[in-house]
Amino acid sequence: MFGLSLVNLGAQSGTGFDISDHVIEEAKELAETSGLPCTFVRTDVYDIDSTPINQYDLLYISIGALTWLPDLHKFFGIASTLLKKDGMLVIYEMHPLLNMLAMEDEPEFEDPLKIAFSYFKSDPWIANTGIDYVGNTDQRQSQQGTNTFLRKKKLTS
């Protein structure tokens, strides 16, 4: 939905890709309400076809997206085909170090800067509260067939 903001700031148009039906539905509603020239496609990013080759000046990857992509080499190969010559790739991400800090509603919380968890935690973290990137849903309304948000503490290449 970041594309809506870019178009609002002056970009000619925007296209968003997401695997979540909820995200696409809400993004389309926001685009219609705002009257901004944006399109949104519900797809697995690995299934983006060759139609939009060399079409985009900017690709934006939002926080947390890379964690869910099992083949980064393939993903960035697809991303590179989407960009025009001299196009820009912008990645907004956080370092996994932040996952070592407990949130205020977690029993491990004592101090906002105190390390509470191992960097090398191997079991999933389960959270049913907090901010979700879909505005009109909560994390229990996932289209992915799960009722929880899972964060793995394992680095993969």
Characterize the structure shown.
With 157 residues, the chain is an alpha/beta fold. Helix 2 links the parallel strand 1 (14-18) and strand 2. The two termini are 28 Å apart. It folds into two domains: 2-91, Rossmann fold, CATH 3.40.50.150; 96-157, no CATH class. 20% of the residues lie in helices and 20% in strands. The model is unreliable at 141-157 (pLDDT under 50). The radius of gyration is 18 Å and the shape is globular. The protein is built from three helices and six strands.
CATH topology of the largest domain: Rossmann fold
Q: Encode the helix/strand succession as letters.
A: HEHEEHEEE
How is the main sheet built?
Answer: 2 strands, parallel
Specify the overall morphology: globular
Characterize this entry briefly.
With 157 residues, the protein is an alpha/beta fold. It has helices spanning 2-8, 21-34, 72-82; strands spanning 14-18, 38-42, 56-61, 83-91, 125-127, 149-151. The protein starts with a helix and ends in a 6-residue tail after the last strand.
Keywords:
single chain, 157 residues, 20% helix, disordered C terminus, methyltransferase activity, alpha/beta
Give the SSE layout.
Elements lengths: L1 H7 L5 E5 L2 H14 L3 E5 L13 E6 L10 H11 E9 L33 E3 L21 E3 L6
Parallel strand pairs: 1-2, 3-4
Antiparallel strand pairs: 5-6
